[in-house]
Amino acid sequence: MKRFVYINDDEASKELCCDNRISNTKYTLWNFFPKNLLEQFSRFMNQYFLLIACLQLWSLITPVNPASTWGPLIFIFAVSASKEAWDDYHRYLSDKKANEREVWIVKHGIKKHIQAQDIQVGNIVWLRENDEVPCDLVLLGTSDPQGVCYVETAALDGETDLKTRVIPSACVGIDLELLHKMKGVIECPIPDKDIRRFDANMRLFPPFIDNDVCSLTIKNTLLQSCYLRNTEWACGVSVYTGNQTKLGMCRGVAEPKLTAMDAMIDKLTGAIFVFQIVVVMVLGVAGNVWKDTEARKQWYVQYPEEAPWYELLVIPLRFELLCSIMIPISIKVSLDLVKGLYAKFIEWDVEMVDQETGTASYAANTAISEDLGQVEYILTDKTGTLTDNKMIFRRCCIGGIFYGNENGDALKDTQLLDAITSGSTDVIRFLTVMAICNTVIPVRSKAGDIIYKAQSQDEDALVIAAAKLHMVFVGKNANLLELMFNGEMLRYEVLEILEFTSDRKRMSVVVKDSQNGKIILLSKGADESILPSARAGQHTRTIAEAVEHYAQLGLRTLCLAWRELEEDEYLEWSVKFKEANSVLVDREWRIAEVCQLLEHDLYILGVTAIEDRLQDGVPETIETLRKAGINFWMLTGDKQNTAIQIALSCNFISPEPKGQLLLIDGKTEEDVSRSLERVLLTMRTTTSEPKDVAFVIDGWALEIALKHHRKDFVELAILSRTAICCRVTPSQKAQLVEILKSCDYRTLAIGDGGNDVRMIQQADIGVGISGREGLQAARAADYSIGRFRFLKRLILVHGRYSYNRTAFLSQYSFYKSLLICFIQIFFSFISGVSGTSLFNSVSLMAYNVFYTSVPVLVSVIDKDLSETTVMQHPQILFYCQAGRLLNPSTFAGWFGRSLFHAIVVFVITIHAYAYEKSEMEELGMVALSGCIWLQAFVVAQETNFFTVLQHLSIWGNLVGFYVLNFLFSAIPSSGMYTIMFRLCSQPSYWITMFLIVGAGMGPIFALKYYRYTYRPSKINILQQAERMGGPILTLGNIETQPRTIEKDVSPVSIRSPVYEPLLSESPNATRRSFGPGAPFEFFQSQSRLSSSSGYTRNCKDN
């Protein structure tokens, strides 16, 4: 599909009626309420509560006032709607500011001011220096005589360096005044979101040019939200406007990520729902039986002789309404609120601020903080993520001669300096390729110094090194390049640029030497793309050895080459290149095919070796996280030996004899299959040995393995804790993440560049580093950090605390709802199984919204261990990875606690008050008071770290309960008139509260004392050491169980269930990813690990 844009012609462009109004808002004033309600009611839980609230409107069946459900429901919906409205209002203000910005356009040959939102397709837009581009433009003219301008694209792709944009060849030489009257047509694709591609053609109408077709690329465009820099003015024709711009097409709401804890909560909610239905059916049948038998014998019960057909449904529906509070209505809002606070804690953490750049950590996704504490695999990029991305030219090999080997710095190698002085041909050519085979822009500072603006740190390092070796790139005037070499000015005219792509893995430029008129091809790229193109007869063995030698030193290498072209050869090729550039379909493939026709018979000049140092703290961070049981995979586009050396230096893998590297290579399916089988056999036989085994695979072998031997590769992924994947493409990175996710591992992907975005978005958790390659990765990620070392604190501190707190909050929410519900059920047995509520409507409504919410929300600042202890003993992260705090067994413990506490409250209350002359409202208030007292002590008992705020929330909330009920008791129409005054004046009431607390909490405290004293977990030991102020014990490393694999990987992913009693953190608890019968001994030595206990990970067969 394509569209035609007519330049400066309003009538012809009418059909492209989209104006330039930007709208990122989700709602309007008219559709906010219906759309927001529809969105909220799309969730099952909200539909369930709406059904319950509607049933309560039926007076025949409702045991309580409908306000008891409608009140909390409306409150919760109002909170969610208010948050949505607030966020959308800020989006509206941002859009309004952008839409009402004034811009210059040309209309009927006259320049005029309009608002940005009024720009139409086909309008000519004028920009001044530092202006923001209001829509997608095709460049027509600039203040530069050669038609060049510079743009900053950081807002678009995160890359901070300036980029060059040029006017199309058809517009070269057009006077400024004629630009106002320009007419023509642009044939371009329909709007898409590919910000790196624009394949179009332009034809200007006479008198400008006689219908000659001119091809357009992304180099001829100015995209929305870029800024014009270092250029006095520029103008262009609008081709995409409003939400049809490339940036507008990229906007959208990312798919929400479901955390492991959210999935568990959904399952537990489903289980409670099933339990509730069973209870309702049993009580409904019992109620109807009692009504038809015992009830008719009681003089005070009056049932009609003939009842309507729905009479049998009344009692079951009453119990459904009574039991509906088993599922806490406020759990989602509470979780959303505390998760938002977790995200703020990350952003407020001063220890995660990069002091060098002042970059603070940022949480873009506020819903997955607890997943950080359950990470099992980290997949990381290398360059800019593990390394500093500060490229320094260290060594080189030119014409078979090694420079810089003695002192490690070629720039100070006297032999190289002498070769430059003597005018060695190969050396001069080598430096020339270093200086001009790139997209670097030299800019003069105010002080007169030359500053290089490079899109790649490698190019920046090469140009700076060439300058230090006297080949100074001093200026770029459109297609004219100027070099200063030993005081002599050299000029080259750029004829064509053969751009770098991840498929070609090389870049070339065709230049014409202004001194002698020779046409030269200069190339640089990876060794596997340059060396096969060497001219016949040239011996490249020395070059290949140099590449190997530098890679073993952990240096990044590029091969440089040169070829002189005959003019006829160039002219013939140039026609084909122009045709390929004019194609609208598969243009990139056609260009690559034509480039191949020229990039052959190259004279290999030599190899450059660039050092990229590790970031501070990387080895320590990886070592610490490996102790926490996290496995690491390195996914890089770099060479194998370079990646291995970096992996060794950052503790990614262990050197021999402790570590072992297994290589998977091959160019054919047979070779890869044989290599993969050999590595798998080794892995299977070494799983019981205390050896750090890792496999290494390159992109070619990986592609074959994923296509033809996917099941074997999945098995290898399960067996291996460490992997190094070299020469991989962005899509392969995403595929590897998907494989680990299909095996039910929690994955975290971290990177810093645009090539890492797909991997980051695919992972359960994406982390971007705000690095030198820009902000693309950081913007696409769930979390952005300034340095790799902050990952340790992000996972061990914030991830672990978030998991612990969310586990408590979610289970406590169910506990308090089940407690009140069980009391209602027990009361039904002494009220004729009639579905009568013990509690009044006001109490039930206040119970969920006020009485029990405040103390638990303060749990977001609770810490079971200090941050220092957590960082010193990363092994304890295993408790989170194993799902120790939220699983069916822990939930069963909370379920049992609620049942036990309900029995205590009900029995003591009934025996204390039922046989006196007490109103039912008094009985209900005594039972409710007992619940509130118990919950205060439960929260206090579960709190590990007390502050003034927590004491105020727990005990202040208890005081608030009495204050509120004193107020309600003072209102005659409240249904609670004088009740609290009478109760509090009776000693029996306070004795009852004492008995309830004693009987309810006594066994809990006794069990906790037994656990801490006789069966402490390692966390308990650390807690005791902290509280006693003594030295914290060294727990040693925790190694995971040896893994064994079933012969056939199951196509269905099944997690083994975890069963453990509440309040028991026994070392023998089963890790969630281990099969039945394979206890996870958390703190045993490696020698005690039994190879017979099998580890089974079943994966989805994609």
TrEMBL record:
Superkingdom, natural source: Eukaryota
Protein EC: 7.6.2.1
Keyword Transmembrane helix set for record: yes
Main location per the UniProt record: membrane
Catalytically driven reaction(s): ATP + H2O + phospholipidSide 1 = ADP + phosphate + phospholipidSide 2
Pfam families per record: Cation_ATPase, E1-E2_ATPase, PhoLip_ATPase_C, PhoLip_ATPase_N
Transmembrane segments: 268-290, 818-839, 894-915, 922-940, 952-977, 989-1010
Keywords: ATP-binding, Magnesium, Membrane, Metal-binding, Nucleotide-binding, Translocase, Transmembrane, Transmembrane helix
Limits of the P-type ATPase N-terminal domain: 5-70
Membrane topology: Multi-pass membrane protein
Domain P-type ATPase A: 100-162
SUPFAM superfamilies the UniProt entry points to: Calcium ATPase, transduction domain A, Calcium ATPase, transmembrane domain M, HAD-like, Metal cation-transporting ATPase, ATP-binding domain N
Keyword Glycosyltransferase (UniProt): no
Protein's cellular compartments: Endomembrane system; Membrane
Matching InterPro entries: ATPase_P-typ_cyto_dom_N, ATPase_P-typ_P_site, ATPase_P-typ_TM_dom_sf, ATPase_P-typ_transduc_dom_A_sf, ATPase_P-type_domA, HAD-like_sf, HAD_sf, P-type_ATPase_IV
Residues of the P-type ATPase C-terminal domain: 778-1017
Broad enzyme group: translocase
Family designation: Belongs to the cation transport ATPase (P-type) (TC 3.A.3) family. Type IV subfamily.
PANTHER family: PHOSPHOLIPID-TRANSPORTING ATPASE, PROBABLE PHOSPHOLIPID-TRANSPORTING ATPASE
Name assigned to this protein: Phospholipid-transporting ATPase
Species name: Brassica cretica (Mustard)
